[in-house]
Amino acid sequence: MTAATEPEHARGETIEISLPGTGTKTFQAGVTAREALTAMTGTLPPDVFAVTIDAIPGDLNTPLTQHATVEPLTFASEAGKEVYRHSSAHILAQAVKEVFPSANLTIGPPIDEGFYYDFAFERPFTPEDLATIEARAQEIIQKNYPVQRLEMSKEDAIKLFQDKGEAFKVEIIQQIEDATVSLYQQGTFIDLCRGPHVHSTGQVRAFKVLHGAGAYWRGDERKPMLQRVYGTSFPTQKGLDAHLHKLEEMKRRDHRKLGKELDLFSIQDETGPGLILWHPRGARVRLLIENFWREAHVKHGYELIYSPHVARYELWKTSGHADYYRDNMFAPIAVDSGEYQLKPMNCPFHIMVYKSHLRSYRELPVRYGELGTVYRYERSGVLHGLMRVRGFTQDDAHIFCRPDQIESEVHKVLEFTMFVLRHFGFTEFELYLSTRPEQAVGAQDKWDQATRALEAALERGGFPYRLDPGEGVFYGPKIDLKIRDALGRAWQCSTVQIDFNNPERFALSYIGDDGAAHQPIMIHRALLGSIERFFGILVEHYAGAFPVWLAPVQAVVLPITDRQADYAVHVRDQLAGAGLRVDLDLRNEKVGLKIREAEKAKVPYMLVVGDREREAQGVSVRKRSGAKVGAMPVTEARDLILHDMPSEVLTSPSLSR
RNA sequence: GCCGGCGUAGCUCAGUGGUAGAGCAACGGUUUCGUAAACCGUAGGUCGGUGGUUCAAUCCCACUCGCCGGCUCCA
């Protein structure tokens, strides 16, 4: 065993270490990153727990053996968070081993907002176990064990873990290709780990065990079930509290809970799992979404079409779905002498419309859009509210164009996508360009050409994007777009995919200016993805308080006593006549109760009418924020509500009752 | 599908091997009220389903359906 901190370089050699913003200094080779930083800046701030050496994260104790740029690493950076959470996972693992010595170690990586560690253990951890584990982890932090890196040969490491009875660790080491492996030790706890790690366990400040769950070894359901423990950690209690608060907020906004409370939709056992029943209020929001969607598509050069829910099984053979998508399809239906398939996708139908007559290069691009409802078999365990269902409506479109039109078409789609998403109140976007995967159809030069066109479209729009190499679909490269919601969560809704496969399978063509037949390029795209899922995202984004233009009920008229009933009806009719969605609460209840219920129903405007308002032919306006706007004429209240909507909506087909 | 948890009134939930309760909602009545819950009363459940153990099952067991948390993050 060789301690990595022992200098392995020639003595007396000097190296230059740069610290951006401070300067460069000469050191003896072998100086640790920590020593170099301290020499250059005085004392090291307590929040520095690791470094980057030429931008690669490393331990504070890493010996520096050549010229390098060294920077302190803190929780502020993504790389820092990963190190911090990874060390937190080790603390968790140490705690579990101390409390339950028979548990075996497997892996414990950092994840988006925390970390987990998987253990092989004879039973699931109970909430009491988790509390014990957390208490022990806190002790480990208190004891502030130094975290030390060790290096040893694979053979030695295998022997070490064999002696400890850690079979999973042995399996992992056997798959490592390097001759030596690194381990990290804190107290008596040793784990195989690439690192880097914090300098001592006390550098992890606010630590929390969250929950346990089952997870397969290497994510493979044929492999043993492990016990996963999730946790998170932050440098400050405040940070942890904010995170826990966010988790509470996610629960509060859960679209399944709000969907029930606001009577938007239901999923019932008798109907079947993953199948949505849209209640009137939810359906009203959906209709508004769809009206906007259709109108926007027509304005942006799309033709709207409709297609059936089933088709001959042969169609799905031609498209290839019968082979590569079979596991996600419902079983075929026997009809007469043949078989029909419930559609999992809309594309074959759009292709058939394209193929219905001969196409000239002059009419391209052809853009077909449809709110097409598809059915896919999803495994029962993955269904989730509106987010993952078995029947949903795609806001689908297919663009058939010439190869030279790809760039401009994709550019238009991207601009259109952002227009639509902004309309729903999303302002933060992340774009990803996915390139050719290992298994793919279509010639390399086609892929290159299409990928370049996608890049050019992204650059023309000035959209920052990230590359996802090899993550394209087998039939072509794609651009995915994610939105961030009010809680900062990313959701992928929009996708733009080039398809080389279907034009070939369906032998699509158009007649070019040379009089010969050519194969068009097909672009699949969805903006909202699934209407069901997008609606669920909207519910969570707005916590059920839809913007006025989408609110199922925009205003409710609340008479104080039944003396004002006739006047209240008059007010309601006047507003409804202006295209607003207005309810009237004529119940024999006190106005406080009516307001409470309107607040709970998240109605944006409450219009109180008493004797005073009746005399003045007005209403007293209260917003759902609790703000009292005050008394005003009915016409003024009407304009106030109308001006609370995007101007495009005012010209759209209204949905007044 | 797999692992774990859960399934009691429309909703949120309590409860016990001796055939069940609360609050809200519903319904009836009283009250006519000024910006987040007036008061009184009535009714409501083969305790998810099927089978088993037991003198007796909502409770224990098996199966089944559904829901919830996970099962992608790779030392």
How would you describe what is shown here?
There is one protein chain. By secondary structure, this protein is an alpha+beta fold. It folds into 4 domains: 2-73, Ubiquitin-like (UB roll) (Roll); 78-250, Threonyl-trna Synthetase, Chain A, domain 2 (Threonyl-tRNA Synthetase, Chain A, domain 2, 2-Layer Sandwich); 265-307 and 346-536, BirA Bifunctional Protein, domain 2, CATH 3.30.930; 555-650, Anticodon-binding domain (Rossmann fold, 3-Layer(aba) Sandwich), CATH 3.40.50. It has 20 helices and 34 strands. Helix 2 packs across helix 3, helix 4 (154-163) packs antiparallel against helix 5 and helix 7 crosses helix 15 (531-541). The N and C termini lie far apart (79 Å). The model is unreliable at 1-8 and 651-657 (pLDDT under 50). The structure holds one RNA strand of 75 nucleotides.
Instruction: Supply Rg.
Output: 31 Å
Low-confidence stretches: 1-8, 651-657
Tell me the name of the CATH homologous superfamily of the largest domain. Bira Bifunctional Protein, Domain 2
Q: Give the biggest sheet.
A: 8 strands, mixed
CATH topology of the largest domain: BirA Bifunctional Protein, domain 2
Structural class: alpha+beta
Q: Considering DSSP H and I runs of 4 or more, what fraction of the residues is helical?
A: 25-40%
- Number of structural domains: 4
Count of helical regions: 20
In the CATH hierarchy, the architecture of the largest domain is 2-Layer Sandwich
Structure summary, number of beta strands: 34
Please state the oligomeric state of the protein chains shown: single chain
User: Order of strands across the widest beta sheet?
Assistant: 17-21-22-29-26-25-23-24
- Average pLDDT, all residues: 91
Report the end-to-end length measured between terminal Cα atoms.
79 Å
